[in-house]
Specification:
Layout: H1 2-6, H2 8-33, H3 38-43, H4 47-70, H5 74-97, H6 104-109, H7 113-133
Helix pairs in contact: 2-4, 2-5, 4-5, 4-7, 5-7
């Protein structure tokens, strides 16, 4: 059985499956903390929401890229991925806090593409910093 789990194809498939599951859960959590419904807004063509959501997806995937590279077990990889996601989520709240003149969620929901772009870049940028720490 050890040979089965040591097979690179099996390891890749296991990591992939776990990351997809985590991604779905993390996107659901992001959806709960925003005022808008990501997929409804994207369906309507809201580019700001698409950019912000894409940044979150890229950010989470990048964090998991680093966890897979640095850790051997799937359980350890998930633990660090959850920790990295929590830091990314905290970064989202800091972004909201640092812009007191307007509400990030409202601007993104109103298709303010400049705010959507900055949100995307913050998520991606923070994922590199978080990943480097993992």
């Amino acid at each position: 059985m050890d040979q089965f789990w040591e097979n690179e194809y099996i390891q890749i498939a296991a990591n992939y499956s776990v990351v997809i599951l985590c991604m779905v859960v993390f996107l659901a959590i992001f959806e709960m903390v925003t005022k808008y419904k990501n997929w409804e807004e994207i369906k309507k063509g809201n580019l700001a929401v698409a950019m912000a959501t894409g940044g979150k997806i890229f950010g989470v995937a990048n964090i998991f890229r680093h966890t897979i590279k640095q850790h051997d077990s799937v359980l350890t990889m998930v633990g660090w991925g959850i920790y990295g996601f929590m830091l990314l989520l905290i970064g989202y709240f800091i972004f909201e806090f640092l812009t007191p003149k307007f509400k990030i969620d409202d601007e993104i929901q109103n298709d303010n593409r400049a705010v959507g772009l900055i949100s995307m870049v913050i998520s991606i940028g923070l994922s590199y910093v978080i990943g480097a720490g993992i």
